[in-house]
Specification:
Order of helices and strands: HHHEEHHHHHHHHHHHHHEEEEHH
Pathway: Secondary metabolite biosynthesis
GO molecular function: heme binding; iron ion binding; monooxygenase activity; oxidoreductase activity, acting on paired donors, with incorporation or reduction of molecular oxygen
Strand order of the largest sheet: 1-2-6-3
Region (Disordered): 428-453
Cofactor: heme
Structural class: mainly alpha
InterPro entries: Cyt_P450, Cyt_P450_E_grp-I, Cyt_P450_sf, Cytochrome_P450_fung
């Protein structure tokens, strides 16, 4: 704890700066009491039952587990290593007053995030991406009190399975055909072709915009956003120490970076939305989610819902293109590294489909090996290794441990999809794991996140 000679030393320093003795002593004492209060709240959070906190590294004075936070990329591997070290599927860390819980097994995630979703499905504050980068409009990141429910209602009604099958599958088939032709013409640019296809499907579905080349401005914008937004939400230091948000930008370069990214965020929402409005005005609009919402006769006549519509279009545009292109890139990597898998998939296509037509959605049930490849692609390299952070709405307990209210919760999806007790030889790409008499669990239960979101 803080010693009295430390208090007097700080008071003397303030006196030297021109403060009166009484004022200097009062300010210093208040500062020290504040530090002690933070320390006490760290040591004794609102734990009415007196339960221990979950396993985790011993926190240091004041800063807590700041030095224990995995940083520098592949943080999911760092959290998995902590889980092995402490032999626990949940790990608790604390930085100042920020509580962080990482979940590293499916069973724990299913219990806490699915079965107790009413308590475990909120979103934390996330100062970096929501406040500094301006992504507070994004449904995926919104807390319940930030407009989550009206945004979710709009997105859900336009992406029901029946709507997707009826209205969006023809778009997908058309763009896959373009992709195949592009791969034949310039296979060395396969990554660009995948990004173009993913963006083209999303742009047509969301805005009715047809992408005709890899240089399409909206494709380029989506790639620019992706390239500058690779950091996992909640991983920035300012998310753990929100007070850093108030530092001047000349000593906080992350604020200058965030300002640039905020500009990209604004462009991503504004540019395609304005294009749809112009097409509607000229009578040339193609049917799309945003167009349908703007033409809805039941919407407010004063246009007060335009921000809501713009946000919903932006979240589909930003989330869909990036995740789809990433998953397909992982598939290409697997086919290069495991040629026997590729050869067997070819044989199944030749046997079940033949060489005179392309596969259709209706053929899926007759292509079990290709279905297993899809599952293994989702498992082998997770598109969202740490998912999107959750937050507890109130205090809870798990396996005899106390979980404070407003704890930031990270679901380590990568670790769950590589549990050796669940998946045999998890680092290998092996579609057969889903085709045996005792198939291993479908990764879809994990890969797309947990809970009410």
């Amino acid at each position: 704890m803080m010693h009295w000679h430390t208090v007097t030393a700080l008071a003397s320093h303030l006196q030297a700066m021109g403060f009166e003795t009484a004022t200097a002593l009062t300010c210093t004492t208040a500062f020290c009491l504040g530090i002690c209060w933070i320390w006490l709240r760290q040591q004794f959070p609102e734990n009415l039952k007196g339960l221990p906190l979950p396993p985790g590294p011993e926190p240091a004075f004041i800063v807590g587990n700041l030095k224990d936070l995995p940083t520098g990329g592949r943080e999911w591997d760092g959290y998995a290593a902590l889980a092995r070290k402490f032999k626990s599927d949940v790990i608790y860390l604390r930085v100042l007053r920020t509580s962080i819980l990482t979940i590293n097994s499916f069973d724990a995630a299913n219990e806490l995030l699915n079965r107790r979703g009413a308590v475990w499905s909120d979103r934390p504050r996330l100062p970096m991406i929501k406040e500094l980068m301006g992504w507070d409009w994004n449904l995926v990141l919104q807390s319940y009190n930030e407009g989550f429910f009206p945004h979710r209602r709009i997105v859900q009604q336009h992406f029901q399975p029946g709507v997707v099958a009826r209205e969006y599958r023809p778009v997908m088939l058309s763009e896959v055909t373009v992709l195949l032709q592009n791969l034949l013409d310039a296979p060395q640019h396969f990554s660009d072709h995948l990004k173009r296809m993913a963006a083209a499907i999303i742009m047509m579905v969301t805005y009715g915009h047809r992408v005709v080349s890899d240089n399409d401005p909206f494709v380029q914008l989506a790639e620019e956003v992706r390239r500058h937004s690779e950091e996992t939400p909640g991983a920035a230091l300012v998310d753990t120490l929100p007070i850093l948000k108030y530092l001047p930008s000349w000593i906080a370069p992350f604020k200058r970076t965030a300002l640039f990214k905020r500009g990209l965020s604004d462009q991503m929402r504004e540019a395609p939305f304005i294009a749809v409005k112009q097409q509607l005005a000229s009578g040339k609009a193609v049917r799309s989610m945003v167009g349908s919402l703007l033409e809805d006769e039941s919407r407010p006549t004063d246009g007060s819902d335009e921000e809501l519509i713009k946000n919903c279009g932006g979240v589909v545009y930003s989330a869909g293109a990036d995740t789809t292109a990433t998953a397909l890139t992982n598939f290409f990597l697997a086919m290069i590294l495991y040629p026997d898998v590729q050869r067997r998939a070819h044989q199944e296509l030749d046997t079940k489909i033949g060489r005179n037509r392309l596969p259709q959605f209706e053929d899926r049930n007759n292509l079990p090996y290709l279905g297993a490849i899809l599952k293994e692609t989702l498992r082998w390299k997770s598109v969202t290794p740490l998912g999107v952070p959750h937050c507890t709405t109130k205090a809870d307990e798990y396996n005899g441990s106390f979980i404070p209210a407003r704890t930031t919760v990270l679901a380590n999806i990568s670790a769950m999809l590589h549990e050796k007790e669940v998946y045999h030889d998890p680092d290998e790409f092996n579609p057969d794991r889903f085709l045996s008499q005792n198939p291993e669990p479908d990764p879809a239960r994990t890969a797309f996140g947990f809970g009410r979101r």
